[in-house]
Each structure stands twice: as C-alpha cells, then as structure tokens.
Design brief:
Layout: E1 5-11, H1 26-32, E2 37-44, E3 52-58, H2 61-69, H3 73-82, E4 89-95, H4 98-105, E5 109-116, H5 122-141, E6 146-154, E7 169-176, H6 179-186, H7 191-195, E8 205-211, E9 214-216, H8 224-235, E10 241-245, E11 262-266, H9 271-278, H10 283-287
Antiparallel strand pairs: 1-3, 1-4, 2-3, 2-9, 4-6, 5-7, 5-8, 6-7, 10-11
C-alpha cells in the first residue's frame, strides 16, 4: 500500500545577496536523483523572505528511510548545513489527497497553517472537515485565486519554537494565486468564514505563512532559479563570464527533440589557458559539480571570433 509523505525543511540561507532564490545546486541534484523523490519545491516565505522552505514529496516513507540510511545522506546533510545561517528544521506530513497536495505546492502562492499541541482525535477530524468543505465550496463557487487544499498530521511531535516542548501537530496547505487572493477570501462571507470555527479550538498554538515555491525537476528547464543561482555562485566576480537561458527549445542534434537549454560563455586568451585553468585546483574544479547534474546533455566548443564593424 502506498504511504506517501511530504517533508518540509525550513531554513535560512547563509548568503542571500548572492543566492536570492535557491542556494542548492548539488544539494537539489542529490535529492532529484534519489529513488522515491516524486517532486521538489523551494522558495522564500512572503512574511520573512530570509526564511526559505524546501518541500520534498516522497512516494513512501520507506523511500525516505532508505535515503536516510544510505551513505549519501550524511554528506548531503552536511553540505546543506554548510549553506545555512543556522540549523534547518525538519518535519514530515502525511497529506490526504496526493493530487491536491501537488496542486497546492505548484500554486503561485502556498499558504501553510501549522497547528501545535493538537487534541486527538477531535482536531484532525475538524481539520479534515474544514479543508474538504472549503475546497468543495471554493470549487463550486469559483473562488478567486484558489487552487486546492491539502491537510494532514505531522508524523512526529514538533514545537513551534526551537526550544519549545514538542507535541502532536497538523498542517493545512492552501494554494492561491497570491496573498491578496487569500486575504480577499477570508475577509468576507464565504467558505473560509463559514467553516473557520472548526479549527479555532482543539489546538494550543498556530502559525500561518505564505511561500512562493518553485518546482525543481530533473529537466534543466524546470530548474530556473536553482540553475541561475548555481551559475551566479560559480561566476561571481568573473567579468569575462556570461550565462543565460535559450529563449526557445533546441536540440543537440539536428534530428533531436527540442527542449529547454542554457548557455555558459567564458572568455579566454587561448584554448591552452582554458585547459590549464580546468586541469588543476582552482575556481573551475571548486564549482564544477554545480553544473554536472540537472541537464541531460552538454556540448563544449571554442571559437575564435572577430567583431565586425559597420
């Protein structure tokens, strides 16, 4: 029987100035290559842009357990922590309705409400009723900006504060077009106010945040923010480098299937200088792993160009 879980990792990147979107690179690539990772989503919090979220949809809890027990997990976690200003916070949720969970995480704005120290079984049941009633009404009424709802219990006790006492918790996720659409929906008569009393009791505390998440995938074209951040990290302070995404799908071969692509240009005095730079310790070898994954194929050529004048 399938036992999908969604893992949430909250963190603060060490260097937001040079990595405004997603400071992952090899971190994300390791996850994307891990069996059982169904999708990966990341982005900043609307209320506090210094706080970021990584959401990992696992096909089963066994898949996560296998990764956590593998020899890849400890180096992956160490690499992640090295990029952060402080320890990351982890928790996992069994979300009802897998299709709805995917729709919520891919919406332009993801609202996440976490209820702490919940009373069982009353609060989980009331949360289910709230989520399902709201979703049905929003779908029937065509609520502006609403995408989907998902809900579930956290698999292990957690606390609101880092030094708090862990307890049972539950999560409600709602996908919106924008924070403004959420504010409009809860500001007047409608599905939220009609059912909100269901989740106002039976829990000791609650947090509510909005995230602007982007889905990352094995396809380079879907790695927009992560890829650009990797290039920025590799090329920072190098005026002779340029990079960017190709505006239309292209293929490596004439008869190949076009797909998204990106380009890196580096200026050298000679091919020999490039060979010397990549042949030993230095900026290229220090950062090359950032662009060895997340793409299906690559070509590398050197050109001797001349500028033509009018």
């Amino acid at each position: 029987m399938s036992d999908p879980i969604t893992e949430f990792v909250t963190f603060t990147p060490r260097d937001l100035a040079s990595h405004p979107s997603a400071p992952f690179g090899a971190i994300a690539s390791t996850l994307l290559a891990t069996p059982g990772v169904e999708s990966l989503h990341t982005g900043p919090q609307h209320e506090d842009p210094a706080t970021h979220l990584l959401a990992i949809r696992w096909t089963s809890h066994a898949a996560f357990t296998a990764f956590a027990a593998s020899d890849r997990y400890t180096p992956w976690l160490a690499d992640l922590k090295a990029l952060l200003a402080g320890p990351p916070r982890f928790h996992q949720v069994r979300l009802a309705h897998a299709a709805a969970a995917a729709a919520v995480l891919t919406a332009p704005c993801t609202e996440i409400m976490t209820a702490y120290d919940i009373g069982r079984p009353l609060f989980p049941e009331n949360l289910r009723l709230f989520s399902e009633r709201m979703a049905a009404a929003c779908a029937a009424q065509g609520t502006r900006g609403w995408h989907a709802n998902a809900h579930g219990e956290v698999t292990t006790p957690i606390a609101r504060e880092v030094d708090g006492t862990p307890g049972p918790a539950a999560v409600l996720l709602i996908g919106w077009d924008s924070v403004e659409d959420h504010a409009l929906a809860k500001g007047g008569p409608g599905p939220i106010l009609d059912n909100i009393e269901l989740i106002r009791t039976g829990r000791k505390d609650v947090t509510l945040h909005h995230y602007n998440l982007e889905q990352l995938s094995r396809d380079l074209g879907s790695l927009t923010s992560a890829t650009q951040a990797c290039f920025r990290q590799m090329l920072r302070g190098s005026p002779s480098n340029a990079h960017g995404e190709v505006t239309t799908p292209i293929a490596r071969d004439v008869d190949g299937t076009p797909g998204p692509a990106a380009v890196l240009l580096v200026g050298w005095d000679s091919v020999e200088d490039h060979a010397l730079a990549k042949g030993g310790p230095g900026p290229i070898l220090d950062n090359i792993e950032l662009i060895r994954t997340g793409r299906k194929d690559v070509t590398l050529h050197h050109y001797n160009l001349k500028q033509l004048y009018m």
